[in-house]
Write a structure and sequence with these properties.
mainly beta, seven-stranded mixed beta sheet, 122 residues, 11 strands, single chain
């Protein structure tokens, strides 16, 4: 079981930037990796994912967020810029050893981080 430990969350103001980190216990360079978020009373939703075959973003963040991976450090990042109140939620990193063409569904991923709160105020 690959363990994913998240850090970097917190409270920020609208327009600010923040970077989330997700450190893996094992090498994830060949994995499909992604980020999801869950607002109050909402279902966990796809934010971004990457694999050597591609990089993907949900429409609401594609102009502002950047997913990145440092394979040597075994760490996944989500660089979040121009944050908006609607970005508020618990953010989760996720990883799966295989990519079969699906990247935006919760059920795709075997391994999950513990989640970290991001709160964006106006």
């Amino acid at each position: 079981q690959v363990r994913l430990v998240q850090s970097g969350g917190g409270s920020v103001q609208s327009g600010d930037s923040i970077t989330l980190a997700c450190a893996a216990s094992d090498k994830i360079s060949t994995y499909l990796v992604g980020w999801f978020r869950q607002g109050p009373g909402k279902e966990r939703e796809f934010v971004s994912a990457m694999h050597w075959l591609g990089t993907w973003y949900t429409d609401s963040v594609k102009d502002r967020f950047t997913i990145a991976r440092d394979n040597a450090a075994k760490t996944l990042y989500l660089e979040m810029n121009s944050l908006k109140p609607e970005d508020t939620g618990v953010y989760y990193c996720a990883a799966d050893p295989r990519y079969d063409g699906t990247y935006d569904r919760v059920t795709t991923y075997q391994h999950w981080g513990q989640g970290t709160q991001v709160t964006v105020s106006s």
